[in-house]
## 1
Amino acid sequence: MIKILFFAQLREMLELESLEFDLPEAISVAQLKHQLAVKGGRWQLMFTEQEVLVAVNQVIADDDCVLKAGDEVAFFPPVTGG
């Protein structure tokens, strides 16, 4: 099992702060995004049409990062500033 957190607009869009995701085997961040996108609706929009950043165990990660049971995955929008 992994814990998934959603921040900022992503939290508002999904109307969800976090969820627990059963992880029967190690998967990549890209595979997790795909599994969440197939839920359809807002999930599909978020993971296929928007740029989403990810952190695994509070460290910025990319789509190739392999997840294992006990990991914490956080999704958040790109940060802008000046």
## 2
Amino acid sequence: MFLVSFDSMKEKTSWYYLVVLILAGEAVFILPFVLPRIFRSTVLDVYQLTNVEWGLNGSVYGIVALVSYVLGGPIADKYPPRKLMAIALWMTALGGLVFATFPSFGVLQILYGYWGFTTIFLFWAPMIKAARVWGGSTSQGKAFGLLDGGRGLTGALFGLLGVFIFSLFISKNVDAALLTERQEAFKYIIYCSSIIISVIGILTWLFMKSGIDEKEILSPKISTKQISSVLKLPSVWLLMIIILCAYVGYKITDIMSQYAREVMLYDEVKSAQVGTFIQFLRPVTGLLVGLIVDRFKITLWLLFSFVASVIGGVLFATGFIEPSTTSLYFLSVITIAVGVYAARALYFGVMQEGKIPLVYTGTAVGLISVVGYTPDIFAGPTYGYLLDSNPGELGFQNVFWMLTVFALIGGIASIIYHRLYRKK
């Protein structure tokens, strides 16, 4: 009965369901993560923070998120995803009003804790469950590939909008711009983003409907039995390791625009453009993976993504890249981005092969994410410490060695997962 229900849902779910899911899936993370990633150097200046201090904001977010994953997972199995996601979008947008005041470090930590609740407790597991509903039993790779690719495109478009707004309000000589001028420009970026996020919340509530009775994908009650049954699955434990390692790689994209600024010696606008370029690699990777991966073994493609991350990490960590080696720099950026974004597009796509029931998706995602997304707690401060303790290229090399080690571990876990579930 479970499989029949799964297939029928795929047939009834419309294309605009996926479009709204994609828009919502990235919009909720624009304020806490996407804008700071693209404008890394600018953000450190306008908020007057060090790399370590900014990383600690992420740690507060991660600690709150850790609890939210556990509690929010079962909630996603009981209530309709679209309603939970819409509320999360509106609450996240409200946080932008505080973000735009350039508050103190302490207030920023409280804000990031608030965002850890709004973006995870009410949003994360419902989004993953909604993607599984759209993918059905035969198109999980397509569902998650298009979701992450589309989210990447949404983030890149927000980045382009941000760079455009920033260039309108900043003087032609970017390096000579006053701090107040930079703050004014970044404030308008925050306000515009908050408005767009709120509108997407309305679209999510009204239009992200699967065309079926929502009760078919909901659990009648939350119980410890469903948690214990999910924890008995080997795929759940392996995905904890795989996602943890892949997410350490994903967090590396937070410093890529900073690398362009401090090592490649680009100005703030050009370094932000590099950050936006990386954002565009995400949709390209996700869309290509989504269109082809279901024809092959999805678990094997997950392994290949970690191999690419290792290659890119070694290229940066060994110090071959210098300001004069522009071609090698962009080749290495592309290699890491493809590996990181492919893994991100695929790791929840293997849940179907790992025999995780659809009705317990929220619970499984919550439990997996408790371990898988701990880099939200430790990656930022660790990267910040490595960068601040060894200013310049050496600090970045240490960060990329860290990426390489985690990618190797993720690759090993992916091999085990592939061998366990390679048979249909």
## 3
Amino acid sequence: MKKTIKLLDLDCAHCAAKIEDAAKKIDGVTDASVNFLAQKMVLEADDSRIDAVVEEVVKLVKKIEPDVTVKM
């Protein structure tokens, strides 16, 4: 299942790359890509775990870049 997550106030391309790399390591994630210019992440994960994966991604984003607002 694909899920698009908005990352408002993402102002660092390096931070976007760190978020993308870390998200790909989460159990259940099949793919993740962060588009810095569009300020969004496209996340692909197992259908049965999508809610738990999204919750982990939100925590991850706040840890890496606390000023970013995550919107679904």
## 4
Amino acid sequence: MPKMKTKKAAAKRFSFTGTGKVKYKKQNLRHILTKKSSKRKRGLRQAGILSEDNVPVIRKQLLPYG
């Protein structure tokens, strides 16, 4: 059976932590930043952790060798 291909779009957006959780960069920090509060922008800098419901989809279909 041939190797499965990694979905490159997903590889650029998601990565795995050491414990197997999926982390991603949060949205809404690219433009129109003047109307957003400093507190909100500060919170958006930290990586988000994907909910456990969506982890199998990312791990099996999009990043099979991640």
